[in-house]
Design a protein that fits this description.
Blueprint: E1 3-5, E2 8-10, E3 13-15, E4 18-20, E5 27-32, E6 37-43, H1 47-62, H2 64-67, H3 70-86, H4 88-99, H5 103-123, E7 131-132, E8 139-147, E9 150-154, H6 160-173, E10 177-181, H7 188-199, E11 207-209, H8 214-222, E12 226-232, H9 235-247, E13 251-255, E14 261-264, H10 270-281, E15 294-298, H11 302-313, H12 334-349, E16 353-356, E17 360-361, E18 371-372, E19 375-378, H13 385-388, E20 395-401, H14 404-411, E21 416-417, E22 419-423, H15 427-436, E23 441-444, E24 459-460, E25 463-464, H16 470-474, E26 477-485
Parallel strand pairs: 2-6, 9-10, 9-12, 10-11, 12-13, 14-15, 14-22, 15-20, 19-20, 22-23
Antiparallel strand pairs: 1-2, 3-4, 5-6, 7-8, 8-26, 13-25, 16-19, 17-18, 21-24
Helix pairs in contact: 1-8, 3-5, 3-7, 4-5, 5-6, 10-11
Length: about 500
């Protein structure tokens, strides 16, 4: 899978269990965002490569994978989870070197996906049809729950392994096969996942990997033999993908952007809330769809919370994401760094005030890195562009509020609805806010909590469908109704029986 070429890691596509260069011979290069240097080369795939991967997935579906019992299929997913956990450190180092996120975070994600594969592996043989009671007692009517077919999975750069498994685990448990297109920013770990699947006993062709940019993604979305697309990324890209897939009546699961509110009421435990605000936006350098990028703080404690936030943010240690004492790494790409700068500048021009940060910065020994200061803005109007659009960077916008109705209106005032946080000791208020907030996930007195058995997804422009939990498997199944006449009685076609 990986070779050394001019000191760069080199990867080819992975199709039907084999390493295969792109048919055009083209490649692209990934960059280490911590130092700005080239890290590895990858196949630049086109429609021919995607077609080969889809064909391999179809053959596996009709062959060894489709012929496995559901129980055996589930056991193989569990074995895959063990293999991934055993290589969590190597996977994490690949990802940190490509997206600049902390090694500890990437290793934790690569380790915890074992729990996802155990859960969905256990669900594989719990997929059941129903027997339908009919008026005609001589007819047996039952349903079968069958896989959709080949599923195209397109994942972003911020949490490659974690987001790949969140989509692939329910799809595979339902009996589908996969063509995976990782982000061109972080493609390396996808190959390790595919290789480990083979070691676990999953047949060749069940999981295929093609790398590249828009050409490869478009070919996967448009392929007539791809039954479903699972995409995680921006809302603009999600709309485009949904329209392309919908044109040929293929379904989509879309987990898109967010502009999540993190709300602190006057009765909240302030120390806990401050930690929750920090974790919601700076723990992953803001490079997560669920980032709590809008903080609404009750006016009775606003200045107190703001002072504590600024003091804590000043202490955040930027540096090499592989170093144990680093608390925040770089932006993943030069384009993301530029976006951070541009959006903060636009917010300031619209009247916001920066209490800390707001600029790119340099780290000793990593002068070529894409580092941006952790940033706190306040004095923002509701229509300030940074209150409406996703930054995907370490930028927190803080706003005071006075009462519950006001903050609900503010929190729901964007096109997004992925997540929300509520900090209060009032149980009645907590449940009321959970109902009123337009978000697929609401956290009360915590933030950034996810589990394999709890559904996750967005409202409004934050997506379609859910991952995690039992209902996610349903999104990868289709229902067949079977009718069996058990009587020998001859039915006259011209005599209607009601």
């Amino acid at each position: 899978m990986q070779t050394q070429q001019s000191q760069l890691a080199s990867f080819t596509n992975f199709i039907a269990g084999q390493q295969i260069p792109s048919q055009s011979g083209r490649t692209f290069t990934s960059i280490n965002p911590a130092n700005g240097q080239e890290w590895g080369t990858f196949a630049e795939s086109g429609s021919e490569d995607v077609n080969a991967a889809v064909q391999a997935a179809r053959e596996a579906l009709e062959g060894p994978w489709g012929k496995l019992s559901a129980t055996r299929r589930g056991r193989l997913l569990m074995a895959w989870g063990d293999k991934i956990a055993g290589q969590a450190d190597a996977i994490a180092r690949m990802e940190s070197a490509q997206n600049g996120k902390l090694l500890a975070e990437m290793k934790a994600q690569a380790t915890v996906v074992k729990e996802w594969l155990y859960y969905f592996g256990g669900l594989a043989d719990k997929i059941e049809g129903r027997v339908i009671p009919l008026e005609r007692a001589s007819v047996l009517n039952y349903t079968l729950r069958e896989p959709l077919g080949v599923v195209g999975v397109i994942v972003p750069w911020n949490s490659p392994t974690f987001l790949t498994i969140m989509s692939c685990a329910p799809a595979l448990a339902a009996g589908n096969t996969i063509v995976l297109k990782p982000s061109e920013v972080t493609s390396a770990s996808a190959f390790e996942l595919a290789r480990l699947a083979g070691e676990a006993g999953i047949p060749p062709g069940v999981i295929n990997v093609v790398t590249g940019a828009r050409e490869a993604g478009a070919a996967l979305v448009d392929h007539e033999d791809v039954a479903k697309i699972c995409f995680t990324g921006s809302d603009a890209a999600g709309r485009h993908i949904a329209s392309r897939a919908g044109a040929r009546l293929a379904s989509c699961t879309l987990e898109l952007g967010g502009k999540s509110p993190n709300i602190v009421f006057g009765d909240a435990l302030i120390d806990n809330a401050v930690v929750g605000l920090l974790a919601g936006i700076f723990a992953a350098a803001g490079q997560t769809c669920i980032a709590g990028s809008r903080a609404y703080v009750h006016d009775s404690i606003y200045e107190q919370v703001l002072d504590r936030l600024v003091q804590r943010v000043k202490q955040i240690r930027l540096g090499d994401p592989l170093a144990a004492d680093t608390q925040m790494g770089p932006a993943a790409t030069a384009a993301q760094l530029q976006k951070n700068e541009t959006m903060v500048a636009s917010a300031l021009q619209a009247g916001a005030e920066a209490l800390h940060g707001g600029r790119r910065t340099s780290v000793a020994g990593l002068e070529g890195g894409y580092f941006f200061e952790p940033t706190i803005l306040h004095r923002l109007s509701a229509n300030n562009p940074i209150m409406q659009e996703e930054v995907f960077g370490p930028v927190l916008a803080v706003t005071p509020f006075h009462d519950d109705d006001e903050v609900v209106a503010l929190a729901n005032s964007t096109k997004f609805g992925l997540a929300a946080g509520v900090w209060t000791q009032n149980l009645s208020r907590a449940h009321s806010m959970a109902k009123r907030l337009q978000a697929g996930t609401v956290w009360v007195n915590t933030y950034r909590a996810l589990a394999f058995n709890s559904p996750f997804g967005g409202y409004k422009d934050s997506g379609i469908g859910r991952v995690n939990g039992m209902e996610s498997v349903d999104q990868f199944l289709q229902t067949k109704s079977v009718w069996c006449e058990t009587s020998d009685e001859i039915q006259d076609p011209f005599v209607m029986k009601v």
